[in-house]
TrEMBL record:
It catalyses: ATP + protein L-histidine = ADP + protein N-phospho-L-histidine. It comes from Bradyrhizobium archetypum. Residues 613-830 form the Histidine kinase domain. One of its GO terms (molecular function) is phosphorelay sensor kinase activity. Residues 1-38 form the signal peptide. GO terms for cellular component: plasma membrane. Keywords: Kinase, Membrane, Phosphoprotein, Signal, Transferase, Transmembrane, Transmembrane helix. The lineage of its organism: Bacteria, Pseudomonadati, Pseudomonadota, Alphaproteobacteria, Hyphomicrobiales. SUPFAM superfamilies: ATPase domain of HSP90 chaperone/DNA topoisomerase II/histidine kinase, Homodimeric domain of signal transducing histidine kinase, PYP-like sensor domain (PAS domain). Its EC number is 2.7.13.3. It is an enzyme of class 2 (transferase). CDD domains: HATPase, HisKA. This is histidine kinase. The chain crosses the membrane at residues 58-78.
Amino acid sequence: MSGVVAAMRRTLLSCTSLARHGMIALATLSAWPEPALATDSIIAQTLSTLFDLNQQEFAALMTALSLLGFTVVAAILLMRTRIRASRTELSLRSDIADLQVQADRLRALLFAEPQILIAWAAGDNRPQISGDTSLLISQDALSSSPQRILAFGTWLPPEPALQMDHAVDALREAGEGFLLNLSTSNGRAIEAMGRAIGGQAIVRIRELGGLRRELAESNLRYRTLLEETELLRDFAAAAPWPIWAKSVEGNLRYANTAYVRATEGKSIADAIHRNLELLEHDQRGEMARVLNDNSTFSARLPIVVGGERRIYDVQALRLSGGSAGIAIDAGEATQLRDAMERMAEAHRRTLDQLSSGVAVFDGQRRLAFYNESYRRLWGLDQAFLDSNPDDSSVLDRLRAARKLPEQPDFRAWKAKLHEAYRAVEPENYTWFLPDGRAVSVVTTPNLEGGVTYLFDNVTESLDLARRYDRLTRVQHETLDNLAEAVAVFGSNGRVELFNPAFARMWKLSAESLKEQPHIETVEAWCKPLFDDALTWRALREAITGIENRAQVALKLERKDGSVLDCMTMPLPDGATLLTFQDITDTENVERALRERNEALEAADQMKVDFVHHVSYELRAPLTTIIGFAHFLSDPSTGPLTPKQAEYLDYVTKSTNALLALTNNILDLATIDAGAMKLELGPVNIEKAIQAAAEGIQDRLATDRIELKIDIDPNIGNFTGDERRVVQVLYNLLANAVGFSPHDAAVTISARRTEHRVIFTVSDCGPGIPAEVKDKVFDWFESHSHGSRHRGAGLGLSLVRSFVELHGGKVRVDSVVGKGTTVTCDFPVDQNAHRNAAE
């Protein structure tokens, strides 16, 4: 019984589950979920009521019923799906047939004429091609360029092919459509249109023919005409020159902004409405007359613009519907032309003043300009030159006059010269003429065509160059054979020139000196022989200094014992001449002479000191002897025998002479020591001469000499030391009396000028030979010359010393056999003389 119950439970549960799933499926199909929920609830309640089932049994029963219901529903749905699929397949087959019919109809319609459709899917570089490709594109081109299917370069000219490439790229990348009318390489007209449709880039290419081609060409010409017209309008509006157009009646139809400004209109419409005129009445009339006779008018006219009169180039053209014109400002061009003419005239005047001959030949090789130097250089006739002869005619005339260099082939020589007309760079020649002249010729091509000839007489220049070269060689030979060492350093301090003596003197290598070493390098080479830093520094500064360049003289005593006399001499070009002279022998001789001179000076000083000392020592006993002689001659001491009186007279005369000699020696020693002081005061000239004459009265009487005095009684005084002046005159008179023969005359004279007093003493003695004349004023120089004069030779020495102390001069004039004249010149004012000397 329990088994039956269990089987019934399982059956009920399966049925219940099947019923539940069937109801859920129906509810799902009907989009109504509530009945399924209600069904679950009803079934659950029913089963729970009919059978006393526990929870697990109830669940198993529900699962079985669910499986049963799902199986039933699945079977039902599968049947429905198969029925519906059969119906859909029949419908799709019918639609595909209809679409194929429509596609065939559209393809037939689309390719009714020769054309190609090319489509690129998004992201795909390989195109889909439809149409008759053989019409426009060869199969070889398609196979060789599958990526760029059009292969435009194979059937389009370069420029249309590039235009087509750019249009296709813009279509594929940005979806920009295009429409192009192009011509193939074989002259066929095509139309290319590109559009972006359904995510694809589609290009249609078709051939244009017949009316369509004519319309396309007309459309292209129309667009081109519109573009050109618009471009011309924009240009005319932006042009800075006045542009206008007029009707046949002469009314203004068009004007640009520049025309409005020039005519002072408010706007273009205002200028056209008011028919503003740019030209004056006479100018317009002349233009109309010319346009009626001809199709163009061109003139340079003055036009008043903005209150200023300016020059314009006016161009006008006659048209079918009137005329058009333009006025271009020619003021600046006129000014430039005038400036160019003035400049050309100035250049002509300048060229006329040149010493170089200038001849300018134009592009036709005819003489366009020449200066006076050119005419004089070649001696050509002015009328011939003014006739603008050609280049060949001028050369032929010069050749006929034998004024050109002699040439074996004159035609070839002239052709080579005329190559200047085709040359780019100037050429230089030197012509040696038959008359001995040398002429430098420069041919310069002109920018505007033609050639400019420059002629310079370089005869003197070449002669000077030859002389300079000869002089340079002589100077080099001279320097090379000088005993002195010579080197020239440039402004950069490097050796530029040297002679072999320089290299030998400093024991340097000639090859090293030829490399132009710096003075510092030369100094380093010479330091083994002479390393005095101060001397080398002075030489470096003299050679490399820029300012205060002065001559420097130095003496170098080298380590080898030689002595060099160094001299630097700055040269005008910034270089410095450095000379070295070996004065070792001269220095040795000079040193010996210096030592000898010092010995002589010491001996002379010893002589002076000795004379001075002896003179002082002699004066004391002489004074005593003279005093006792005077004492003995005094009658108060007692009578003397005649013989004693005679002897005493001899003693007195001898001691007086010895005292005078001693005084003279002392005076000379004092003057030589610079200790002589003059006692200045007024000197009566007449009294001074009388005092000197009194001192020689005894000798005058003894020798029967006549003294002649020639002075002006009013000669007056002068400033000096009176005692020394008398001593000078006494010595002169004593010297003159001593050299004069018996029964002769001695003359003393004095004359006065504004600043001087001149004493002159003359005798008739034997005169002074020329070899002795220069020694008469030396100490102890006494020459009798066959006269009675005997002396120590100090008189004239004292005369010169005392006169020079006064600031005067002594001159001796003597003629052998006729006598001697001594002239002493004293300044009148000693104070003025001393101030002038100071």
